[in-house]
Amino acid sequence: MKKLIIAASLSIFALGVANAAPPAPKKEGIEGKDYKWNAQDGEKVEALTKKGDKKRGEEGYETCGACHLPSGAGRPDGTFPQLAGQHTTVLIKQMADIRAGLRDNPTMYPFAATLTDAQELADVAAYIESLCIPIEHGKYDSKPGDAGKDWKAPADVEKRLAEGKAMYEKDCKTCHGANGEGNKEKFYPVIAGQHYKYLLRQMTEIRDGHRRNANPDMVKVIKPYTNEQLISISAYQSSLSMPGSMCKPKAGAAPAKKK
């Protein structure tokens, strides 16, 4: 009951902050001729030089937990991404981009704006990175929370995963790794444990030029993808898991299927 009260209080607080916050700034992104992905400037650079304090970061993360959950698991329906275990470099870059108006996220902006300085940015990122990656997340064949009694898993799961794996190994593995581990030094995100619907939405926005802080190299790779191909590769990406970084299965849970 106590946890429910805390969660409800955080949600109410989050709504209040969102309604009271000023509009996000607007900075020229990928559509501009002078755009440089991951340019080394602004508070991002300062935050990256700071040593994050996980204990302080846990306190700073409390507001984030209203949407991304205390575990950092996000929402299986893809409305809020899984953050747990994400590289500090990626977290700092994305939060700094949102704060600077380089990435459009009206929902996230009011909360990113509450972080006081580069040190707090580094602290929260360090705490999030320390969290284990949930294994129970939204996949292509996950049952929606509002599904009726007659819901059935898609019949083409194996086909989607096979198609997605082929595309992933050809176009994504070099940057995001064999197990979706990303690359901390190069700011490539962890995608293991990420929700299928979130991945599909982000890849669609990147392909269509709506993610203004996107990596131009990634845009070139997925620009030719059809909607059907995006579904398949997102389905495969959401099936990935990182050895040693995933949370332990819950007691009594069925063993994970081998891929």
The CATH class of the domain at 34-130 is Mainly Alpha
Number of strands: 0
Q: Please tally the helical runs, counting DSSP H or I stretches of 4 or more residues.
A: 12
CATH architecture of the domain at 34-130: Orthogonal Bundle
C-alpha termini separation: 38 Å
Strand content: under 5%
CATH topology of the domain at 34-130: Cytochrome Bc1 Complex, Chain D, domain 2
| Coarse morphology | globular
Low-pLDDT ranges: 1-20, 255-259
Any descriptors?
259 residues, mainly alpha, Cytochrome Bc1 Complex, Chain D, domain 2, 0% strand, disordered N terminus
Describe this entry's structure for a reader.
The protein has 259 residues and is an all-alpha fold. Among the domains are: 97 residues, Cytochrome Bc1 Complex, Chain D, domain 2 (Orthogonal Bundle); 81 residues, Orthogonal Bundle (Cytochrome Bc1 Complex, Chain D, domain 2). The protein is built from twelve helices and no strands. Helix 2 runs antiparallel to helix 5. The radius of gyration is 18 Å and the shape is globular. The N terminus and C terminus are likely disordered.
